[in-house]
Amino acid sequence: MGRIETFPVAGISLAAVTFVALLLLGIDAVVALAVLAVWVGSLLVAAIRPPEPPTVIVERQFTVESMRDLIENSSIPLLVTELGAIALANRAARRMLGQHVVGQDARVIFRQPEAITLLGEGRDGQAIVRGLVRRQDIWQINRQSVDEKLAVIELINQTAEADISRAHTDFVANASHELRTPMAAILGYVETLRESGESLDSPTAQKFLATIEREALRLQSLISDLMSLSRVEAEKHDPPQDRIELAPLVERAAREGAGPARAERLEIELDADPVVQGDRQQLEQVVRNLVDNALKYGSGDMPVRVMLDLSREKQARLVVIDRGEGIAPEQIPHLTRRFYRTDPGRSRASGGTGLGLAIVKHIVERHRGRLDIDSTLGEGTRVAVRLPLAEAGARARQETPDTETQPREAQEMS
Questions:
Q1: What is the DSSP string of 167-220?
Q2: Which residue in 178, 115, 155, 211 sits closest to 338, CA to CA?
Q3: 280 φ, ψ to 5°?
C-alpha cells in the first residue's frame, strides 16, 4: 500500500472554507458535504505515492557452453577451468598449447611451482611461466574466478618486453666494454710516458704516441657511431621528405668512404639516376659505411664494386660487392646487431666499431627500404639496399617552382 509523503493542508483548508461558504449561501448541506468529501478525497489520492515494485535480483548462471562463444574469437589465449580441470580453450589457446589440453588438469599444463601453487589454491592472482611454448618464452597467467566451480585463465606473452629489456642491458654492457678498451690503452701509455720521462727513447715514445692516437681515433669513431645510432632511432618514425638524386650522392659518398689511400680499389657503376625521398646525410652515411666495410674486410688486392640501378620492383638499388673471405651463413642474420663481429680481433685491428651495419639497417628502415646481405665463404659478400622512388607528382612540383619563389633576377628577365 502507498503512503502519503506530504499532507495537503492548504488544499483541505480551501475545501473547508468552500464548504462553509456553500452553507452560508443556502446550498443544501448534503450537497455541500458531498462536494467537501470529493474535494478532500481527490487531494488525498493525489498525495499518496504508490508503492515501489520489489527489486528482483536475477543471478545469471555461467556455464561452459555459455562462455564458449564469448571467448572463442579472442586473440588472447584463454582457458576456462571447471574444478581445476580445463573445460574450454579458445582458438588462440588451442593453437598455442594443442587440442589435447581440454580435459587435463591445469597444473599439469603449466608445470611450474608458482603456477601450480596459484592453481592448486584456487585463488585469484597471477604467476609467471617460462618456456611454455619455446625455451625462451615468458608468459604471465592471470586467474579470475567466475563462480565456485568455474575460473578463467588468461595468458599474456611477456617475451617481447623481456627481449627489449635484455637488449638494452646488452647494449649498455657492450658499449661500456667497447669504450673501456681504448680508454685503458690511452691511460696506460700516457702513464708510461709520464713515468719514463726523458729515459724513454724516441722510437719507443713515437710508438706509444701512435698507439694513443689510434685508440683515441677509435674512441672518437665509437662515440660518433653511438650518437648516429641514437639519432637515427629517435627519427625512425619520421619519414624524410627531401628529394635526393642518388647518382651524384652515391659517387661522392663512396669516394669519401674509400679515402685517397683506397680510392683506386673502387669500381663505381651508375646505370640509373633515381630520385628518392630521403635524408641526404643519412643516405651518405649508408654508402660510406658499406664501402668502408667492403674495403676493410674484402681482399686487399681485389676491387670493390659499387653499383646503382633500378630493381625489377622499380626501386632504387644500391649494391656493394667485395671479394673477400665471405661470411658463414649462420652469422648473416646477426650482422646488423649492435657490436656484433664475425672476427672481433680483426675488426678492432681495422678500427671497426661494430655499429656500422646496425646504423645502415635503421637508416634503411626509416627510408621504408630493404637491406639484403648475401655471402659465400671464399668468394665475398654482396650487400644490397633497395629504396622506394619519389612520387612523380612530387618531382613535377619540384621541377616547376612557383613564380613567387624564383629569384628576383629571373622574374625581371622574364
A1: HHHHHHHHHHHHHHHHHHHHHHHHHHHHHHGGGS-HHHHHHHHHHHHHHHHHHH
A2: 178
A3: -55, -45
Q: How far apart are CA 123 and CA 100, in angstroms?
A: 25
Give residues with Cβ within 8 angstroms of 389, minimum separation 6. 274, 275, 276, 314, 315, 316
Distance from C-alpha of 164 to C-alpha of 187, rounded to nearest angstrom: 34
Q: What is the pLDDT of residue 407?
A: 38
* Cα Rg, the chain, nearest whole Å: 41
DSSP string, 315-341: EEEEEEEE-BS---GGGGGGTTSTT--
The confidence score (pLDDT) of residue 350 equals: 57
Residue 25 is classified by DSSP as T
What integer pLDDT is reported at residue 348 of this predicted model?
55
- Classify 243 as helix, strand or coil: strand
Confidence at residue 48, expressed as pLDDT on a 0 to 100 scale: 73
Q: Going from the first residue of the chain to its last (414 residues), give the mean pLDDT of each consecutive group of 10, the final group possibly shorter.
A: 67 81 81 82 75 64 77 88 88 88 86 83 85 81 87 86 66 70 80 72 79 80 77 77 92 91 89 91 92 86 91 90 88 83 61 79 91 90 92 46 38 34
DSSP 272: -
Q: What is the pLDDT of residue 235?
A: 75
- Reading the block at residue 85, the C-alpha cell is 580441470
Q: How far is Cα 296 from Cα 258, in angstroms, rounded to an integer?
A: 10
d(CA 181, CA 355): 16
Residue type, 13: S
* Predicted local confidence at residue 217, as pLDDT: 79
Q: Which residue out of 168, 177, 362, 367 is catalytically annotated?
A: 177
Report the 10 Å Cβ neighbour count for 97: 20
Exposed/middle/buried for residue 293 (C-beta within 10 Å: 0-12, 13-18, 19+): buried
- C-alpha cell read off for 175: 658499449
The per-residue pLDDT for 352 is 66
Q: How far apart are CA 150 and CA 154, in angstroms?
A: 13
Contacts of 375 (CB under 8 A, 6+ apart): 326, 327, 329, 332, 381, 382
In this structure, the number of other CB atoms found within 10 A of the CB of residue 71 comes to 20
**Whether 177 is catalytic:** yes
Per-residue confidence (pLDDT) for residue 4, from 0 to 100: 61
- Nine-digit cell string for 120: 592448486
Measured in whole angstroms, the distance separating CA 9 from the mean position of its chain's CA atoms is 74
